[in-house]
Amino acid sequence: xxxxxxxxxxxxxxxxxxxxxxxxxxxxxxxxxxxxxxxxxxxxxxxxxxxxxxxxxxxxxxxxxxxxxxxxxxxxxxxxxxxxxxxxxxxxxxxxxxxxxxxxxxxxxxxxxxxxxxxxxxxxxxxxxxxxxxxxxxxxxxxxxxxxxxxxxxxxxxxxxxxxxxxxxxxxxxxxxxxxxxxxxxxxxxxxxxxxxxxxxxxxxxxxxxxxxxxxxxxxxxxxxxxxxxxxxxxxxxxxxxxxxxxxxxxxxxxxxxxxxxxxxxxxxxxxxxxxxxx
Length: 279
Ligand SMILES: Nc1ncnc2c1ncn2[C@@H]1O[C@H](COP(=O)(O)OP(=O)(O)OP(=O)(O)O)[C@@H](O)[C@H]1O
What we know:
Blueprint: E1 2-10, E2 16-25, E3 30-35, H1 41-48, E4 56-61, E5 64-65, H2 71-76, E6 78-82, H3 93-97, H4 99-103, H5 108-121, H6 138-150, E7 156-160, H7 168-185, E8 188-193, H8 196-202, E9 205-210, E10 214-219, H9 221-226, H10 231-236, E11 247-251, E12 254-258, E13 264-267
Parallel strand pairs: 3-8, 3-9, 6-7, 7-8
Antiparallel strand pairs: 1-2, 1-4, 4-5, 9-10, 11-12, 12-13
Helix pairs in contact: 5-6
The protein binds adenosine-5'-triphosphate.
Pfam families: ABC_tran
Family: Belongs to the ABC transporter superfamily.
Protein name: ABC-type quaternary amine transporter
């Protein structure tokens, strides 16, 4: 469990990134910070592994203040996956995945074996192990980034707009991959995006942020869609338009659900009455 308590952050140039922020992020669930550019998402994320220290307040992991932890040791135990993949260009794929393992004294042979195993985990061919990042597609690089984040088997994975730089089809594949990995490994994931659809797809807990990391709403995707807390949230989630502006249409073949653009999205099934049994 990660807890932000009365966090504030002012950068040395006087910019207020976070005014006052408190939230509990449950263990083994995915929490998504979503908001427009500059709302403070990355600042909050980086406080978890002390890439940024708050000017006020406390961040705790399992009840322990991260301020008391050595930043380098702390970071080794937390996977960090960022938009560009952040891969070292002159190091092979296997070497990139095993970076943390080399730092923690794992033998070369064991690190190589683990890197190959992780290529399987993220759905990449082991034959890619000896390539350099520039010899991979953007989507493959992102998968290597995910593998590297998983290398030390951390309990916590921080993901900062990890799929922002890839095309929509690859992005959809990578999102499904995260859902699959999460089903298998149950990490505590903190995911930053400005894409509300991505937030609703991946988040168990979604945190919609306004300027200065003010919380506009926090809840499950269903809670937010069913009951937006303000006009800001309704606008932000696009409640009035697109895929979320659903309505019913009666047709000669039954009632269907139609989206804001008039496209039929599915068929309406009446919930079965209590006690009704199906033959
Ligand atoms: N090192 C820094 N020095 C000064 N101001 C900073 C620094 N890093 C971020 N900021 C400012 O703090 C605010 C929050 O930035 P942050 O990067 O956390 O937002 P974000 O929501 O992640 O934005 P984006 O989606 O564009 O990445 C912004 O106004 C930003 O300009």
